[in-house]
Task: inverse folding
């Protein structure tokens, strides 16, 4: 984990070698990758903590990456009362790492994506916490097999949820802080109404809305059951492989776009050509693929002169 956070060229080469070895290992494909996203303060960390306890009680190991956008905001915490995950202190069956976001919107840094790959090779379950603001919601899908949206009671009505495009991505909805009573129940009903309007249920999966209190532990076991059900669904339908490929493609595409812009992608032959290259790449890491395709773009630019 330290290696992938290190920017020195020599260490970067080592990190790429490590990621390639992991990409070729069966262990990294086996882990369940779950993303938790939602507004600041909705209780993601508290829920992560509760989930980790329950998973450990069932004998499963847990790796956690929390994407922390606060370092880029004010140098401090986003909220004064935000919770630090700590249930795993001293337990070798868990590992927690906070990683900086790429930008203040909470986008996933390359190192974060690498961090998930590493934990996936070592733990049964990998949980990733991101603050859901804007684009970070779809970025979580690059690394997670299952996306859980954690809603804050009273945070909005159906229309707002729909406008924000919030109902399209998540596989599971958690209305946390159910201990707050009616306000939580209202939010849950609004979400259910919104989900009933939108024709969701891609490939036969209907996203459930779960009432949970991360603080009291209520509904956390039901959340674990839903996660397991979604996992079975992904495996049964072949959706798991499709998602992993889509995530890999989105990661490579995003990294190349940030470095070389749309003109760089055009040099590769455009979107269809990029997809074909990722498909043909075999079991090397996404990070290696970015390096290789990037070298190709740079070579094409040198030959073309002009730039
Ligand atoms: N009443 C109640 N409060 C909760 C519950 N879960 C979390 N909280 C409180 O909500 C506040 C924020 O919790 P966090 O777990 O830090 O929320 P978060 O979504 O991780 O926040 P960020 O990481 O800052 O985005 C804390 O004061 C928690 O104690 C819950 O189930 N019920
Ligand atoms: Mg948090």
Result:
């Amino acid at each position: 984990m330290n290696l992938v956070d290190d920017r020195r060229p020599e260490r970067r080469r080592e990190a790429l070698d490590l990621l390639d070895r992991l990409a070729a290992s069966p262990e990294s494909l086996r882990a369940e990758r779950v993303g938790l996203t939602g507004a600041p303060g909705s209780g993601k960390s508290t829920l992560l903590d509760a989930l980790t306890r329950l998973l450990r009680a069932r004998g499963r190991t847990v790796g956690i990456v929390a994407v922390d956008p606060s370092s880029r905001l004010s140098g401090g915490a986003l909220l004064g009362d935000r919770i630090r995950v700590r249930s795993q202190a001293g337990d070798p069956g868990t590992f927690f790492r906070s990683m900086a976001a790429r930008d203040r919107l909470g986008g996933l840094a390359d190192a974060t994506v690498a961090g998930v790959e590493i934990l996936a090779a070592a733990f049964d379950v990998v949980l990733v916490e991101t603050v859901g603001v804007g684009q970070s919601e779809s970025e979580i899908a690059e690394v997670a097999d299952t996306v859980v949206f954690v809603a804050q009671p009273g945070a909005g009505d159906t229309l707002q949820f729909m406008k924000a495009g919030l109902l399209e991505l998540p596989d599971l909805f958690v209305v946390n802080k159910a201990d707050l009573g009616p306000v939580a129940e209202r939010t849950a009903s609004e979400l259910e109404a919104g989900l009933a309007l939108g024709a969701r249920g891609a490939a036969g999966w209907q996203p459930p809305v779960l009432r949970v209190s991360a603080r009291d532990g209520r509904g956390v076991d039901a959340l674990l059951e839903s996660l397991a059900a979604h996992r079975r669904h992904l495996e049964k339908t072949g959706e798991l492989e499709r998602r992993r490929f889509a995530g890999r493609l989105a990661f490579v595409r995003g990294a190349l776009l940030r470095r070389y812009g749309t003109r760089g992608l055009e040099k590769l032959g455009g979107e269809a050509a990029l997809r074909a290259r990722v498909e043909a790449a075999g079991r090397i890491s996404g990070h290696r693929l970015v390096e290789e395709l990037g070298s190709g773009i740079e070579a094409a630019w040198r030959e073309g002169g002009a730039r």
User: Anything to note?
Assistant: The CA atoms of residues 10 and 93 lie 31 Å apart.
